[in-house]
């Protein structure tokens, strides 16, 4: 009887975790540069006397979907879409270097180039500072030029773009970092598309279908628990009657 309970209980817990991931992905279907989170489960035997045949299903993180999202042309000079496996380097709120595909940039009041989420954009020499009253443009190789009021185009900096050889890891802040936490070197061959933004790679239709499937699976597991309870009650009544 307890085997049935273990199966239904661990399955229901895993399904709830799957629903959380799917809901998180669906909530970010319109987030610029978002990478869909992937999820998998592994079987872990229960330790202890008499429990060698009991197995839990535990969540294991498999990373993110690296497929590129759709590129939307905006015509805005400070919108950039990373090409290939290139990532834009930014300064996280904790001061560490992190990487993102969200390329909607803006200039703060003090001239600091930032993402629309308020993160400082890192260039080849550190945070990028724009001259006052200058119009910025970004070349495909990440070079930032400023057009001054007198009509001159002056190079300001070059965006730091990296191309990781191994998959990055998503942090609690939604930014990506290398597996060992070390800063990645700039890739001079990395390229971007200016005047465009990369959208989320989450498919709303596929995610909704997966959520419906997970909900039905959860209902079946709850029915299994209910059946196990009913069988246990019936067995206890039968034993008491025979006694």
Brief account:
The protein is of the alpha+beta class and 243 residues long. It is built from two helices and 18 strands.
Describe the structure.
The protein has 243 residues and is of the alpha+beta class. 27% of the residues lie in helices and 30% in strands. It contains two helices and 18 strands. The strands form seven sheets. Strands 5, 6, 9, 10 and 14 form a five-stranded antiparallel sheet that branches. A three-stranded antiparallel sheet has the order 11-12-13, with no helix packed on it. Helix 1 runs antiparallel to helix 2 (204-242). The longest helix is centred in the C-terminal third of the chain and has 39 residues, at 204-242. The mean pLDDT is 87.
Counted by DSSP, the helix tally is 2
Low-confidence stretches: none
**Radius of gyration over alpha carbons?**
26 Å
Major beta-sheet overview = 5 strands, antiparallel
**What portion of residues is helical?**
25-40%
Number of DSSP E strands:
18
* H/E series: HEEEEEEEEEEEEEEEEEEH
The shape is elongated
Share in β-strands: 25-35%
The termini sit apart by 21 Å
Mean pLDDT: 87
Give the class from helix and strand content and strand pairing.
alpha+beta
Topology of helices and strands:
Blueprint lengths: L1 H26 L9 E9 L9 E10 L6 E3 L6 E3 L4 E5 L5 E4 L4 E3 L5 E3 L4 E4 L2 E2 L7 E4 L4 E5 L5 E6 L2 E2 L6 E2 L5 E2 L14 E3 L1 E3 L5 H39 L1
Antiparallel strand pairs: 1-2, 3-18, 4-17, 5-6, 5-9, 5-14, 7-8, 9-10, 11-12, 12-13, 15-16
